[in-house]
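Hi D.,

Good news: the full-assembly prediction came through. Inputs first.
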Amino acid sequence: MGKVVLMQGNEACVEGALVAGMRLFAGYPITPSTEIAEISAVRLPQEGGKFIQMEDEIASMACAIGGSVAGVKSMTATSGPGFSLKQENLGYAALAEIPLVVVDVQRMGPSTGMPTSPSQGDMMMARWGTHGDHPVIALCPSSVKETYDLIIRAFNLSERYRTPVLFMMDEIIGHLREGMELPELEEVEVIDRKTVKYPEPKRLPYHIKKGKLVPEMAPFGMGQRYNMTGLIHDESGFPTNSNEEAEKLIDRLMHKVSDNYADIVKCEQVGMDDADVAIFCYGGTMRAASSAMDEARKAGIKCGIFRPITIWPFPEKELLEAAKHVKRIIVAEHNYGQMVLEVERVVKDACRIDFLGRYNGTVITPDDLLAKIREEK
Amino acid sequence: MGKVVLMQGNEACVEGALVAGMRLFAGYPITPSTEIAEISAVRLPQEGGKFIQMEDEIASMACAIGGSVAGVKSMTATSGPGFSLKQENLGYAALAEIPLVVVDVQRMGPSTGMPTSPSQGDMMMARWGTHGDHPVIALCPSSVKETYDLIIRAFNLSERYRTPVLFMMDEIIGHLREGMELPELEEVEVIDRKTVKYPEPKRLPYHIKKGKLVPEMAPFGMGQRYNMTGLIHDESGFPTNSNEEAEKLIDRLMHKVSDNYADIVKCEQVGMDDADVAIFCYGGTMRAASSAMDEARKAGIKCGIFRPITIWPFPEKELLEAAKHVKRIIVAEHNYGQMVLEVERVVKDACRIDFLGRYNGTVITPDDLLAKIREEK
Amino acid sequence: MSRQEIRLAGSGGQGIILATVILAEAAIQAGMNTAQSQAYGPEARGGSCKAETLISDQTIGFTKVQNPTFLMALTQKSLDQYGPEVSENCLVLIDSGLSAPQDMKAKRIVALPILDTARTVVGKIQTANIVAVGCINDLLGITDAKTLEKAVLMHVPSGTEQLNIKALEEGFKLAEGHEEK
Amino acid sequence: MSRQEIRLAGSGGQGIILATVILAEAAIQAGMNTAQSQAYGPEARGGSCKAETLISDQTIGFTKVQNPTFLMALTQKSLDQYGPEVSENCLVLIDSGLSAPQDMKAKRIVALPILDTARTVVGKIQTANIVAVGCINDLLGITDAKTLEKAVLMHVPSGTEQLNIKALEEGFKLAEGHEEK
Amino acid sequence: MTVDTGDVSVKTKNMSNLIYKYMRPEHLPQIWCPGCGNGIIMRDIAQAIENLGLSRNSTVIVSGIGCSARAAGYMDFNTIHTTHGRAIAFATGIKLANPSLEVIVVTGDGDISAIGGNHLIHAARRNIGLTVVVMNNNIYGMTGGQYSPTTPTGAFGTTAPYGNLDRSFDIAGLAYGAGASYAARGSAYHVQQTTTLIQEGIKHRGFSIIDVASICPTYYGRKNKKGSAVDMLKWQRDNSVTVDQAAKMSQEELKGKLVIGLLHQVNYPEFTYAYDQLIRRLFEEREENE
Amino acid sequence: MTVDTGDVSVKTKNMSNLIYKYMRPEHLPQIWCPGCGNGIIMRDIAQAIENLGLSRNSTVIVSGIGCSARAAGYMDFNTIHTTHGRAIAFATGIKLANPSLEVIVVTGDGDISAIGGNHLIHAARRNIGLTVVVMNNNIYGMTGGQYSPTTPTGAFGTTAPYGNLDRSFDIAGLAYGAGASYAARGSAYHVQQTTTLIQEGIKHRGFSIIDVASICPTYYGRKNKKGSAVDMLKWQRDNSVTVDQAAKMSQEELKGKLVIGLLHQVNYPEFTYAYDQLIRRLFEEREENE
Amino acid sequence: MKKVLMINQSWCKGCGICAAFCPKGALEIVDDKVQRKEGTECILCGQCELRCPDYAIYIDENEGDTDQWAKSY
Amino acid sequence: MKKVLMINQSWCKGCGICAAFCPKGALEIVDDKVQRKEGTECILCGQCELRCPDYAIYIDENEGDTDQWAKSY
Ligand SMILES: Cc1ncc(C[n+]2csc(CCOP(=O)(O)OP(=O)(O)O)c2C)c(N)n1
Ligand SMILES: Cc1ncc(C[n+]2csc(CCOP(=O)(O)OP(=O)(O)O)c2C)c(N)n1
Ligand code: SF4
Ligand code: SF4
Ligand code: SF4
Ligand code: SF4
Ligand code: SF4
Ligand code: SF4
Ligand SMILES: [Mg+2]
Ligand SMILES: [Mg+2]
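Then the structure:
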């Protein structure tokens, strides 16, 4: 058994990222994500990596993309207002297929809002924050240990699918300290970047070799000269005005994620075997849900929990299946109602859907959930 | 009858805005919205107003907000990448309740994409582009004449509800020139800002007088000194850490829009009385739809059109009602599938939903729609 | 007037867009409906460029030209590109210097020395688009000369009115005695 | 050990958060589960401040203290604020300088001269949080002295180890002969 | 007048006339830490306004986000606390919409020179009539002590645990390079000089910036062993030289010194003035044509 | 060697060795307008690289968005065409991740000094080893002729129909004010001097910027009646003075002149070098402790 | 009217700046609050007022009817 | 090897820069393309190459076997 250590969520995010191979972090401080920058500043140079504090979040995002283009696993972290600013370049990374991890430790908005209060108000922004259509992978941890493990998975997914991965934390987990067992490093699966090993003349940088998911990447400087752009491009990496190529590109980007739903989408279902009522929740809200479920079961209510770990793509298959076996789903989230819209869309009329939203800076408690569970309309 | 003039969509946007009372435009050029800036630069000083080209879109948005705070009706315009950059301050304007109009002439993304190609890829960003929860009003014109009329309505709504209004154009309409009848200016309804007329000691700037929808605004300089902030604030305009106040504020912001659904939400329904199949579309796509409908009807197919003019809040009541009377809805949009998700959510199992998306830079044609109408699965 | 789907093509600097705008304006002035648009793109910078106007006495739904009833091309490149796309019945106007590509289906082709007239008769190659407008109006009968003149004056830069009226008149003249190939 | 819900309150600079972190660490070292968190806010800048640790041998679901089993307050302001919130059975530790507010329901109150001990016995007021940690461990029996010492050493800045160990020992001593009010 | 040797009096308003007149006492004392230099500088601004006799109603205070940016909330004017880094861009809109307003931007080093750097240089270039007062504490105070663009090379911050590798901005110099027509530097210690510099900056027709060395004992002081607030002010007292003195000193001698005073002033047409002239011109031309 | 009087020869590659070696001929000719100055400047960059003997594989060209930014696509290096204004921020990541790369940013006046102004000043401040070549045409070319931060006061653009009210940036001066350790100005006309300035900029260890006056006959030229591309180049030829000459001229005499040459060079430790030193130090300290 | 030194202890945060820069050493900080130091002379120079970051000490005309320390503020 | 002036007309956009700055007036633009002007002398100075924005004119060694204008490029 690995050593158990006391760690904060934000710290676990950095330590996990280091294990996953992060060697460049570009950021700009903002509560409640700041510790991620601060710990990176301490830890990265110790591991031969680099931390840089950029002039703002736009630059941080751009810098992290640059690092990745040069072959180094890169990360950036922020909170709501900064996440808004990163969106334009997030679209760039999605289109140019640049692996990197973007952490958003959500805080209460809109605008400056309540900077130190917990929230899950950026869930839809994670999906729709930038212009145009592009694929999104986003993950949500609900404990310190899961933060550690899941950030490694975030890096792995970003490398496997050559796409930015969003790591949607909340203040509840980011600022929580709890014990976690450190894994044996040998046992951690780390996906290294699939790179071109030697320069190939006339190689098409966005051509996918047979049996591969995505084009292999050639880090700048390794000898394979090519072009990257945020314009619609063909396999050569050069801009094209061809409508066929445009469609092909967007289709390919979308499908590399949607076709691999089973690999990417994970959710946790607790007590769902016999549940009558399910709590749908994610991130830090899970902690109240699990206490509430225990209480409810003690009171004889068959309560279960459906928790997306991958929040984008939305786990619609699993949710629809689950919805068919319960009478009610209570969607609990720390916002005015975001993922509940997806639940409504997916579940349709399969079961009743209730919503418990919290948007006043406090945390949903087990009692809040119990009251909702007991509520009969 | 007013004079009929040849006008471009982007030009109609400026001319309408001038009629609505716009006297400040802050922008940054970007295809295909640039003409809006260019025409504003010519026209505003002629009307005693001011055009300023800021250093970027963030500054443009901030500058327009500043103008509005000082009592001048203000507008900014951009396209996808710039719209991404405006999001943070859009959240500010929503929270601080600052009326202004933000135009997005959409172009194909993601990222730089195909800058000159039509798209409707920012529809979800309009709703979810910034962090946290806030209300959104967004309108979509589908002709040059409607652009003119609707931008006036955009200003009116922004004043009535003290909130930024998003004007979601597309390249199809923005760059289209057609004839339009100029209204008699006396007949145009222009809502002037409800402002505090004389300074009241101890006035609470965010207090709503009985019978009013929103707090009356006091333009800076008129003698009513108060504070504005992007932090959660109480009626005094000062930051608060009270969770009750936070909830009250967010609730009020959301409800001022949702409670006035009937006033804000407009849609056009054509041929829906007897339709078996409805085309759901908005903006420039309407033009193909209306031709397709004519053709379909000629061929004996009972086709109708459901077109949201207000796209946010989403016209869910009307749509659900309409869905109950048709067999199929074909959602046609120039993106990979955005509003179709809302249609799915709202319509649930009321009728079959088909999707016709276009994301290759070309325009959906009447033939494309006819083929879809004829398609039987 | 029955529905006309007019497409003009040429190179970036030839004022093709302005020509369609003037035709659209003429249609408006003549009480008809119109929808004018253009292909934007890097082509605008030097390459070939296309612009379109729909004219109809009916309400215009779809705003793009789908099946041109009229095509004009002022450069060989644009003719080669857009010529083969049009159907048999499309009337095609080309500058006399150009030769119709093999795979062009259109049967009705008119060749007129538009560029030459602008250069030598009007004295300024930049007026070719206005010469063309004169020709087109004549060929399609969109409106009368006076209305078209008004439309031209509404859209050319001040100071160039004289020159452009001359160009328009030369266009009228050119088209008068034309002959379909 | 049954579930403990520990809340510490004081003013911004008193090291309240560190104290809860050390208690959480002690719990981990003793093989228990823990969840530590704090209230962030403008209060951190000078005002009163609260931090919490849950300790349990069971898995911890909800991570926030709901019904404190233990409260410590080091300033009157924080005692006035948080004191009335706790229930009858909560054990309350206060600095000897403070007086319990009227509306406090808690019955078990221990007053110890924590600040004074830090200032005069240890010689540095900043060590009050570590003195407190010593007291708390003694009152709640979280773990043995050795483990707690280890936890302290894991979290204090290097160079201050000696001083803090002394503070901890003084804390132990203080709590030894304590008396509930 | 006989000098009183220190009687103390109770008066209901509990504050000086200056504070009573220009602050919002119901929000005082500020959330700032004990000894934070921002309060001193905020008072300087009020004193400058008092000296100039500006009307509170036609004066606007715009701030971004940061400890320093909280100043807006305390000052009894038209105040707006905007988003991080964007104060100048908001202020530009306000000034443009109503040039008769006196628009003062109160900001921090991070707000104005990190995320907000672009707006600073462009407002300076345009020479728009804003007065920018920077409460420059060489650190991000609000977020807990990360290094800022004015943190000296080698100094420490939570994100510079091994010493800052970046070189630092001279904010006044940067603004001058970008075209600011008035640039000055003050300090928390030099109350009267700083007040005068702010006062002249407000009077100046065009873009003016007064970069004021503040003190943040909580983060910058602690991280860099600069001692208490008192020690930090004493450092300012003992290490400042005036612009005139500096002119006679070598680069070597100037190392580690704070140069205080008016660094640069020149006259160009102010932006909104030029704009109004343009509008007038267009109106006149139209009248002529009609 | 006998001078040939002008035979012309056919050769399959159809281009000079320089172009063949450093460009991507399959993408030539560029989309730039006839007479656009960008092609000349792009060749200067290639020539500078040739003179220095840099390896194409370890050279990176980063650009933003604009006509000028299209340069990246034509040059046969590791090239990346990023988002508008952000080239320097992307380049910072590339350089930091792999300091052995020679990173050259090719950008326009709008890209670097309007939306990208903040990244410019911060990269200059950090003294990170990038070489920035600005194709400065005093206008936004790509979007059709709007005024830019380098459009002179009074000049016209589609968004300055009544003449530009803004003052303009001197980009090299701005970068210098922000801390650039190498700043120079070239022009499209002065091919050899500009090549040398770029070459020295690349050699310079630290942040260097070469602001090159380009020509945009299509928009800037047309809007401002500057004539043809040839006329615009002739203007550059006839109105340029060297830095040395300029030093002897009065402000009055310098009006309307283009000052060409090395404006400023000084040595500071380069950022990524300093970072690598830090990492080494930490590793050494750790070894000592083990 | 007589000038007096005023103290608003409720606003005082005890930073000690006033005391440090008082030319007469007339102030001291006790329990994190400023107070007049016994046996010293205040010359009403106003230095303390200028530098107090919290506006807790200032010179005013004596309009009140008391000459006590303003502890109760 | 003999140096020669090379022209790649397919890349030439006819801007006229080469012709304007040729010290010998040895170039002219015909139908928007550059060509050698008859009766003039080219001294292979390379000025045209340096300033051609489109790399359509340059000096090269004569490796080919023809000495015709490169019109067919
Ligand atoms: C877009 C955005 N990024 C980051 C933050 C977090 N943030 C708030 S204040 C601040 C730094 C403030 O530094 P400075 O301007 O120097 O003010 P100080 O607190 O030092 O007075 C930061 C990074 C934010 N609120 N918004
Ligand atoms: C965020 C964003 N805003 C605006 C644009 C539109 N845009 C593209 S290029 C450009 C200006 C380019 O000017 P400059 O950098 O001077 O380049 P030039 O075309 O003159 O070479 C603008 C405004 C964009 N692509 N992205
Ligand atoms: S953290 Fe620093 S700047 Fe912020 S209030 Fe405290 S002392 Fe002032
Ligand atoms: S528009 Fe100007 S800058 Fe752009 S390619 Fe044409 S000449 Fe060059
Ligand atoms: S300076 Fe002000 S806050 Fe500080 S001790 Fe003196 S009176 Fe109190
Ligand atoms: S007024 Fe002068 S002498 Fe009196 S306490 Fe204040 S600083 Fe000291
Ligand atoms: S090489 Fe010199 S002489 Fe010959 S054509 Fe070119 S510029 Fe003229
Ligand atoms: S400079 Fe080049 S592009 Fe221009 S005319 Fe000469 S050869 Fe042709
Ligand atoms: Mg600061
Ligand atoms: Mg430019």
